[in-house]
Every structure is written in C-alpha cells, then in structure tokens.
Amino acid sequence: MVMLSSVASLLLAGSASDNEQETENKREWGVERHDDVIYDIMLKRVQHGNSPQNEVSEGLQWGTHKVRYVKAATLERLVAHLCRWKRIKREEAEDKRLPLFRSIERLIRTWVKRHFNDFYQPPSHPLLHQLVRDVEGWRADTCDVIEADDDLTSFLRTKLNAAELQTFQEKCLEDMNSPGNYVEQDDPGSPLGEVPDNTEATKTFLNDLSPTHVAEQLTLKDANLFMRTIPHHCLDA
Are 9 and 92 in contact (CB under 8 A)? Predict the structure, then answer.
C-alpha cells in the first residue's frame, strides 16, 4: 500500500456543476476504502448552476457534494488514478490539470529520491530513460499550464547521469580487480615476462581514449590502492 496525500480527487456527484468555484467550503467527513484504495472523504458546499439539468433542484441555490481524495493505494491503483489526468479538458487546465501534474511530479521526485534502487538497472538503466521520455512528453502536453523553469526533467537527468557514472565506476573496479588484467611472469628476471606481441593494437586502443577517460581510470586505480592501504604500515618503525 502506497501512502499519498491528496494525489488526485474524484468528484462523485453526477449533478456537480462545471462552473463551481475552487474557493467553496469543505468539511472532513471520514475515510472510505474501495478496491485497494483508501480515500479521505470531504463534503463540499457548491452553488447550483442554472442549466436545464438542474430543474429537479429548482429553487435550491446551494447543495453538498461528496468528494474523495486518494490517501493511499496499491501501486497499480495509484498509477491508474494518476493516468486520468489527460482527460481533463483544456478549459479546466489552470484549475485542475496543473495541481494534478504537480502531484504526479512530487510522487516521481519522492519515489526516485527514496527508492532509487527501484530504477537502478545497469548497464543501460531502461526505466530511468523511459521516465525521462515520459516526463518530457508530459511537459509538452502541459506547456500551457506549467512554468518554463520546471526542473523535474533536469532532476531525472541528474539521477540518470549519476546512475551511469556509478555503473561505470563499478565496471572499472571490477575490471581492475579481475585476475585477467594481471600478466603472470614466467621469468622472474624479466620485467615483462612472456607478453604477446600486440603493440599495434595497443597503440590503436590508446589513441581512441580521451584524456578525461584516462584521468578517470587513473583516479579510480589510485582510489583502489588507497582503500587497500593499512595506515600503521605507513608509519616509521
């Protein structure tokens, strides 16, 4: 069960007017549970419209509607509720689509921060790449209601870069600690021992490496050596 405060609201009363004001009074009523979703129940005081659909309520200016806010849900149900945000009409964007987008943004940001291992899938990290693409798509769909300086995409790209760097570091340490990277010398008197003659291949490989990559490799090797150092062995006898 995933706990979430006011991620999305579902207006249950079918007679609710599309012109109701966001400043209407609300009163807490209780908690309900349906289909693996826990709702906070609010009673909302709204003014009836003047459309023909309200003929039954003719003479009544105000009414009370029941509103449910998602408080907690299983992951499947939570995603199902969040995915309804695109159904909100353009004319309702400022009042409804933006708050819902912000709720989704907070959910994603909190999830990635607290449970980063859920998205850490080396070496290619497909979930993080998919999440970045989805958020960029949401931004394009909500460009009329979100601010230009929204940083959710930047936040996710930073996390993706950190994941790729961590994967690179783990791979480098694994390669350095691999027995295959050390040449066994058959002749102790020879500094190089029996080494295959692959000079040209080595030159080609080194020419393909950037100075930054070489510096990173040397730094990681130094770090590996420092981790093996025993401090009191460095002291004078």
Answer: no
Per-residue pLDDT tens for 88-107?
A: 555 555 566 677 777 778 88
Residue 229 has pLDDT above 50, yes or no: yes
The whole model's pTM is what?
Answer: 0.42
Q: Report yes or no on 226 lying in a domain.
A: no
d(CA 13, CA 76): 25
- 191 within domain boundaries: no
Question: How far is it, in rounded angstroms, from Cα 26 to Cα 14?
Answer: 18
* Range of the structural domain that residue 107 is part of: 88-179
Domain count, the chain: 2
Backbone angle region of 41, left / alpha / beta, with phi > 0 → left and psi within -120 to 50 → alpha: beta
Are the C-beta atoms of residues 82 and 70 closer than 8 Å to each other? Answer: no
CA 40 to centroid of chain Cα atoms: 26
- In angstroms, the Cα distances linking 133 to 65, 127, 152 are 38, 10, 12
